[in-house]
Structures are given as C-alpha cells and as structure tokens.
Specification:
Blueprint (H helix, E strand, L loop, with lengths): L16 E8 L6 E8 L5 E4 L2 H14 L1
Length: about 60
C-alpha cells in the first residue's frame, strides 16, 4: 500500500476527481450535465453531457 503525499490528493499511482452530475430540465434540450474538479481545490471543468465528461477522462487516462 502506498502512503498518500502529505496534504495532497494526487499520488504517482492515481488521481482524485470530484464528479458532480445533475439534470438540467430548463435547457433547450433537457439533459444530464457534469463537472469535474481535480482533488478538492483544482480547476473545475464543466461538461454539457455525461458523454463529454467520460470522453475527457478517457483522454486523460490515455495520456498517462
């Protein structure tokens, strides 16, 4: 088991993301939306769909 880096949510073996998913019934075409934030304090990215969010994560994993 690896020890977490002091005060960080990022380790050499993985990343931590906060995923928020919600339904937006008032959009022109009601749909599920998502946002991702790396760790608890990283930049927040917003996505117009769950598919866009998953595609982004897939790209991040491929670059590793």
């Amino acid at each position: 088991m690896t020890r977490p880096l002091e005060g960080q949510l990022l380790s050499p073996s993985g990343r931590v993301y906060v995923l928020r998913v919600w339904y937006d019934p008032e959009a022109s075409a009601p749909r599920w939306r998502a946002s991702l934030q790396e760790g608890g304090h990283g930049e927040k990215k917003h996505f117009a769909s769950i598919d866009d969010c998953v595609e982004f994560l897939y790209g991040v994993l491929l670059r590793r």
